[in-house]
Amino acid sequence: MSAQSVDTVGSNEDQLILVNASDEVVGYGDKKSCHDNDGILHRAFSVFLFDTRGRLLLQRRSPKKRLWGHYWSNSCCSHPRRAETILNASSRRVREELGLSAPMSFLYKFEYRAEFLGLGVEHELCHVLAGPMFGQPDPDPDEVSDWQMVDPNHLDQELHAKPEKFTPWLMIQWPQIRTRYWCHVTRSLREIGRSRVFA
Fold it and tell me: Which helix (H) or strand (E) covers residue 31, if one does?
């Protein structure tokens, strides 16, 4: 692995929260170890941010990333540190990666495991959140190589036509959001004064 194939904002020595399948804390481990070998189940989060036109913010992960560098993914993904809540951690990472502030609401959580080219493994109990974005992204280039605003219907089509462009967790989460949680997403956005988004 090259010296650059690491996350630059988050340290590999960050203490992540190890959990069981019920999302109960069972210990702590450094970030690198959690993604080595077979992977260690740990708590994570994924954020989906929408603009006033109802478009989703997608980011392209930096090629410096150890796992799935240069793949398109949802707005922000990361891990809470030891003693950090999901909401605090997600707000922190949205600010660090994207230069944005965004109120978020919890949708659901799920466990998944995915291997990447022998370079590491994601094995996460992932909390999925959604909310509106305020302002224009100003991403950290060490974390995000590109970004775009995508119409939900267009993303549906792209995930079906070109799945190889996207991270595995986005491929799992987006269909769930669209089929099971879309009403919740749109209602939450309306509650903060953005009813015109999905009119």
Answer: helix 31-34
- Which residues are catalytically annotated? 77, 124
Tens digits of residue pLDDT in 66-76: 777 889 999 99
Please give the residue range of the domain that contains residue 185.
15-194
Asked if residue 173 is part of any domain, the answer here is: yes
109 HSE (CA, 13 A, CB side): 16
Q: How far apart (Å, rounded) are the C-alpha atoms in residues 28 and 25?
A: 8
pLDDT in tens, 110-123: 999 998 887 788 99
Residue 6 in any domain: the answer is no
Residue 28 sits in a domain of what CATH number? 3.90.79.10
- With a threshold of 0.90, does the pTM exceed it? no
Q: Which two tokens stand for residue 103?
A: 């109120």
Over residues 22-79, the pLDDT tens digits come to: 999 999 999 888 888 888 999 999 999 999 888 999 999 988 887 778 899 999 999 9
In a domain, 5, yes or no: no
Q: What domain count does the chain have? A: 1
Question: Is 112 contained in some domain?
Answer: yes
